[in-house]
Structures are given as C-alpha cells and as structure tokens.
Amino acid sequence: MEGIDFTNAEHRKVTIIGTGPAGLTAAIYSARANLSPLVIQGPEPGGQLITTTDVENYPGFPDGIMGPEIMQKFEAQAERFGAELRWGSVTSVDFSVRPFRMVVDEETPVVSDTVIISTGASARYLGLENEARLLGHGVSACATCDGAFFRGQEVAIVGGGDTAMEEALFLTRFASKVYVIHRRGEFRASQIMQDRVLAHEKIEVIWNTEVIDILGDKLVTGAVLRNTDGSNERTLPVEGFFVAIGHRPNTDIFADFLDRDATGYILTKPDSTYTNVEGVFASGDAQDHVYRQAITAAGTGCMAAIDAERWLADQEA
Q1: Exposed, middle or buried, 102 (CB in 10 Å: 0-12/13-18/19+)?
Q2: Where in the chain is the domain with CATH 3.50.50.60?
Q3: How confident is the model at residue 307 (pLDDT cuts 50, 70, 90)?
Q4: How many beta carbons lie within 10 A of that of residue 200, not counting itself?
Q5: Hey, what CATH class is 10-122+247-316 in?
Q6: Which CATH class is domain 125-243?
Q7: Phi-psi label, residue 85: left if phi above 0, alpha if psi -120 to 50, beta otherwise
Q8: Which of 24, 38, 272, 307 is most buried per CB count within 10 Å?
Q9: Active-site residue 302, yes or no?
Q10: How far apart are the C-alpha atoms of 195 and 190, rounded to whole Å?
Q11: Catalytic residue (choose from 142, 285, 288, 307)
Q12: Quick one: average pLDDT of 75-85?
C-alpha cells in the first residue's frame, strides 16, 4: 500500500470482496438492510459457476439452469436492492486499522467499516490445453456437482487423496465404470477410503500413470495416458474426466492479518463467519473446504451479511 493516499478515499459501511454465490448473497442481504454494500467483483465475476454448464442441484430450478445464467440472476437481485457491483480486484488490504483499508487494481483506495470476504477457491487442474478448452463439456473438478450428467457412461478421475476417493465412490452411483488414475503406486488417502475404492466393482485403478492430453471436439471422448516412466502411451475412452487434486483458496492477500489453516482456508469462529479480526467476515469457499457447493456458499454469504449488520449495530449502540 506504499504510496497510496487514503485521505479522501471512498468510505463504505460494507465492502464485499468477490462475487460468487457467497458474495452476491451477502450483497442481497446487506442491501436489503440498507447498508448499500460495495461489491468488488474480482478477476472471475460470478465465481466457479461461470465455468459450469447445467446446474441441477440448486433449489428452485427444477429443470436446471446454466451456471452463467444463475449468476446473472444473483447479480440482478443484488443490484435491485441497491448493491453496487464494481469491476476490479482487491490487490492489497490493511486490516490493522479502522476503517479497514483496501486497494483496488493496485491504485484505487477504498475504506470500509466492515469487510466480507468471499474470494472463493480455485480448483487445481493438470494444466493441459484441452483440459481448459473442455471444462464444462466433460471436464469437471466437482463430481458432486456434475456426476449425474454421466449416467451409464465411463468416466475417469485423477487424484490419490481422500477427496479423489470420495468423488470416485460418488461417481459409481451414476457411471457404469470409474477409472482412478494416479501418478504413484499407492494412494495417500486414509486407509478406510482406499479400501472402499479398491473393493468397489465399478472402480478400476490405473497406477503409476499420468494424463498427457484430453480428447474431444465439443465433448470429452477420451484421455491420453502415459506411464510415469515415459513408456506405454495409450488412449482411454471416457466421456467424463474429473480432476480431484485439490483446491487453492484465494486468500493470499489476507495472510498478514487473518488466521488460516495449513492450506490457506480462512478460519472462522464456530457457528459464525467471524474471523480473528473484529469486523472482517469470511464466507463461501474461502473458508469452506468441506462442502464447496453453491448452496452452502450462499448460506454462509447470508450468515456473513447478518453478522456484519449486527456487528455494525453493536458498534453504533
């Protein structure tokens, strides 16, 4: 923040960082409480749902809805009640002073009495060109979200931890066959989860193997595999390709001020969205490494807005 003059900085009661389901739900609740929240949209307005096609597990849409469409509805509802959505990314913060200081796009100062963090988490991918191209068209990082689209089909999942095991088992509810591809000769998942996967009749484990390409024009048709020693390149025909190698919470800019766990998720006090800094609240995938669903993110966004509203009322009392 060196060189940024906060003397005449814009001052808000509530500033929300991020616009996924958590941030926009927080915006709806804060706006309806007449707090006129400012929402800094971040580098990916709408969050992970923007990269999703059909959303069938969000209540109220019995026929499903496209990911970008549902996020547009979130935005319209927030703006209807007076939330201000602004392009830009918060690039630095100072939570050691009040009102809290933020810098948008490395140059624009904003100060705020409360801050709601909803910066989400980014799924880790393999980094393949076709993986990115086919994201939402057979490639997914969420079996819980997308598994039902692959009824009776053969799918593959990459990973070796508990999340990969859980998602592989979940996929067996729909897929006719689930291939678990792992770079090593043993899983790092808990023993009980390994045992369940290895015993399941629908699951086949492909050991010591890496994925070097994803095939398909408009939809996934297969994955190109190669042994980790560089031998035996071959094609695995599948119609779904899931990546379960972890998520990275987008919380690095808060590291100097907020308590986080070993992987970077913001720690909140039990049954609340309070962080270790009074007046700063965290919601959605930035603090939830367990559920990571749009509906649970929206729920914590609601909680954060209510917590912020009550905290402000206490300060003014």
Answers
A1: buried
A2: 10-122+247-316, 125-243
A3: very high
A4: 16
A5: alpha beta
A6: alpha beta
A7: beta
A8: 24
A9: no
A10: 9
A11: 142
A12: 96
